[in-house]
Recover the amino acids of this structure.
């Protein structure tokens, strides 16, 4: 079984990225042949600063390795180190209906947020389909917002297979219900573009301030809160605290007598402890960037070997080889 996922180097990674995609992906590295990559080509559709992309790419590599991605189990690489993927993107784009891309939520959302509608942004799902299909991927762990991209990938693969004969494996998304959409400090989906994130490796004082500013209501501490399970702080606490501890806080909030300030302080402490080991590992890795570069280089060589084979299959299927 091949498992594949990617993440863009477009900014510091946050709890939504971690619980929605990275943690499931890291757990799956023991269950099959895992391929994980840093989607630097995708980041070009919305980030136009070369230094920032270079810096973010290394930051994402550090984050992923610190969080437990094990390069002896998973193949870890940079998307652009496998140029075969851009050739496959062209082949796939010739069977991708315009209507399919025009219905893309992600494209429409990004334009609504003011990102300029360049061709790369429009064709983003075709590059993503190539990423997935070029490794014969079976399972793709992602957050809810990527579901439509997986459906598009399947549509494109099916269409190709109908026209040129069985070429591509159809992938399945893996979306964990309980973390499909981690909320940000304002209650919307946690996302870099909403400025509502809690970074995995954020600065202590900055994260503390963000957690203390999580949106709550004005009911005083002593008032019982029958809707305690809906409380944003409780929802985040459930991610980083042991289940029994989170439940205790939820019960205390429901009963009345627990103030939001105290609850937020508890959330900060659990968050800080949750990533303590990873924070140490990250500091170590940071001193050894040669190792990080070597991991990505080795990963690219392994990924390329697979990509070449699948690309050749596609080239033969469509008659350019
Ligand atoms: P962002 O919205 O911050 O730009 P990305 O689009 O780069 O995040 O997402 C990278 C991965 O993390 C994707 O698999 C995405 O589904 C997942 N992800 C991002 N935000 C969340 C969230 N709030 N909850 C669950 N998963 C998320
Ligand atoms: N579009 C994904 C995101 O923004 C990143 C990505 C690119 C990806 N290629 C992929 C995810 C292939 C899974 C599989 O998060």
């Amino acid at each position: 079984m091949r498992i594949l996922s990617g993440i863009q180097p477009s900014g510091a990674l946050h709890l939504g990225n971690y619980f929605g995609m990275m943690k499931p992906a890291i757990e799956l590295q023991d269950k099959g042949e895992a391929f994980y990559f840093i989607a630097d080509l995708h980041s070009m559709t919305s980030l136009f600063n070369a230094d920032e992309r270079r810096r973010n790419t290394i930051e994402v590599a550090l984050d992923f390795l610190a969080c437990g991605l094990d390069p002896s189990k998973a193949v870890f690489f940079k998307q652009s180190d496998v140029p075969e993927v851009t050739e496959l993107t062209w082949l796939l784009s010739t069977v991708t209906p315009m209507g399919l891309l025009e219905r893309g939520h992600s494209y429409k959302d990004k334009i609504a947020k003011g990102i300029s509608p360049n061709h790369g942004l429009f064709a983003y799902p075709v590059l993503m389909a190539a990423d997935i299909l070029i490794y014969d991927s079976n399972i793709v762990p992602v957050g809810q917002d990527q579901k439509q991209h997986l459906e598009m990938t399947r549509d494109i693969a099916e269409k190709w297979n109908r026209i040129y004969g069985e070429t591509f494996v159809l992938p399945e998304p893996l979306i964990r219900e309980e973390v499909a959409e981690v909320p940000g400090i304002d209650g919307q989906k946690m996302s870099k573009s909403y400025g509502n994130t809690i970074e995995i490796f954020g600065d202590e004082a900055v994260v503390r301030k963000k957690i203390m500013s999580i949106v709550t209501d004005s009911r005083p501490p002593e008032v019982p809160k029958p809707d305690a399970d809906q409380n944003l702080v409780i929802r985040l606490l459930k991610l980083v605290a042991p289940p029994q501890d989170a439940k205790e806080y939820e019960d205390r909030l429901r009963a009345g007598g627990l103030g939001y300030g105290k609850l937020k302080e508890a959330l900060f402490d659990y968050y800080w402890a949750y990533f303590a080991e990873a924070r140490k590992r990250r500091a170590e890795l940071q001193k050894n960037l040669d190792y990080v570069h070597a991991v990505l280089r080795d990963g690219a060589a392994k990924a390329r070997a697979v990509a070449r084979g699948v690309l050749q299959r596609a080239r033969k299927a469509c008659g350019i080889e």
Residues 7-8, 16-17, 20-21, 142-143, 145-146, 179, 181-182, 189-193 surround adenosine-5'-diphosphate (ligand 1) (CB under 6 Å). The longest helix spans residues 289-318. The domain at 2-182+289-318 is CATH 3.40.50.620 (Rossmann fold).
